[in-house]
Amino acid sequence: MTERRDGVRRRSAFGISLAVVAAVSLSACGGGDGGGGSTTIRVTLANHVWTDNVKKALPEFEKQTGLKVEVTQLGEDQLSDQYNVKLNAGSSDIDVMMYRPLQEGRLFARNKYLADLSAQVKSNAGWNFGDFQAGPMEATTYEGKPVGIPIITEQEVLYYRKDLLDKAGLSAPPKTLDELKAAAAKIKAAEPDVAGFVARTGKSAAVTQFSSFLYSFGGDFVDGGGKAAVNSDAAKQAYAFYGALIKDSGPANVSTDMGWPEAMAIFTQGKAAFYTEANSLYKNATDPAKSKVADQVGFAPFPAGPAGSKPYNIPSWALGINAGSENTANAWKFIEWATGKEQTLAQQKSGVPGARTSVWADPEGTAGFPEDLVAAIEASTKTGVGHDRPQVIKVAEAREVVGQPLVDAITGKDAAAAADTANTAFQAFLDDEAR
Predict the structure, then answer these.
(1) Which of 20, 67, 109, 379 sits CB 3.0–4.6 Å from 301 for a disulfide?
(2) What is the pLDDT of residues 226-263, one digit of tens each?
(3) Do 267 and 356 belong to one domain?
(4) Domain limits at 192?
(5) Which Pfam families match (predicted)?
């Protein structure tokens, strides 16, 4: 899946196309919804394999409903620009919108760009709103009301080298963070040219993957009262652990500006034993054309910390209805179809991980994924947390603040002191945003 995470563009393992702009109008045979809305639904989608799959299936939807769907397909930057212009102006030109819940969802919801879907999700028992995983739904809910339906998900899992574990006499991948630390140190000591562990190190880029460490230590970016909590005891322990894992068992002369492409390259070149990363990128590690160790890569659930294994389980993309749309009844018909079990299963069979529990329980829905990755994902969906960064309006700025202690810990500075400094800055940021 593609996602622009504050300057880091993610090129998915699932073959996302280059950013292009296309408008597709697919015809149908007349009809209407009987609710007074237009028989044409205007849908704005991002460049993504999910979008390509939906476009191929649209004739079926149009035939079933007698509606016409006009798709505007945009690159992520262009998508954001269009939303900024049209939604700010209260335009009704968009009915259905594909958006990133954790990047712009809070802004959209607070500004009332997204329609409240409470009534719609209860309207069709067969569609089964309860089938959606809790973590992704947490991210598409605002002030207790669903404002989006997740369509693509990801979780953080542990990538590892089977051959290096065998050589080190380790019978299974680590189940806890302490076991991970010990195994990484053992392998690095025995293999001077191989890092025991690699992960993102960039101040902003690392925040999302660090989040699973933070939750597994029992912390979060804010506390139950909405106050900054990146200097809690749990957070300080998590910062110190993550930093030391890379400092002590990471690559030699490790830089502090690595995003996923750089960290993945180290792993796929055979230069690291363990790597924690989003499952959505797994084909980069298992494709022989991209990975020198493709036949030796294994997957495991995120290791448990003092609070258990609590990786993120998030929706990278969701569908919502523009609150300014004058065609909400038909817009919901499209979303209901596009997020139904049949379409979710078809998407997942093509490699796009969805948010429906029933599809993950269906052998057809998991046949295209490695068995150990499916098991890791299943574990993640049970205990996962529905956000992988601070849930704020200005996400990019927040990541810079809460990511600084990571860089300090990796470079051997006092992680606790860095966390205290970051917490003061983050609280000021939160206070400013609340004004």
Answers:
(1) 379
(2) 999 999 999 999 999 999 999 999 999 999 999 999 99
(3) no
(4) 155-312+387-434
(5) SBP_bac_1
**Can you give the pLDDT at residue 192?**
87
Task: Tell me: do 166 and 138 sit in the same domain.
Answer: no
User: Are 139 and 194 within one domain?
Assistant: no
Q: Are residues 169 and 234 in the same domain?
A: yes
Give the 3-state secondary structure of residue 108.
helix
Strand (E) positions, 103-224? 141-142, 145-146, 149-161, 195-198
| Cβ atoms of residues 207 and 406 within 8 Å | yes
Q: CA-CA distance, 435 to 228, in Å (whole number)?
A: 16
Number of helices and strands in the chain (H, E)? 18, 13
One domain for residues 260 and 196? yes
> What is d(CA 181, CA 241) in angstroms, rounded to the nearest whole number?
9
Rounded to a whole number of angstroms, the CA Rg of the chain reads 22
| Coil vs helix vs strand at 44 | strand
Output 23 or 418, whichever has higher pLDDT.
Answer: 418
Strand partners, 275: 159, 198
Q: What is the pLDDT of residues 348-396, one digit of tens each?
A: 999 899 999 999 999 999 999 999 999 999 999 999 999 999 999 999 9
For residue 79, the surrounding DSSP H or E stretch is: helix 76-88
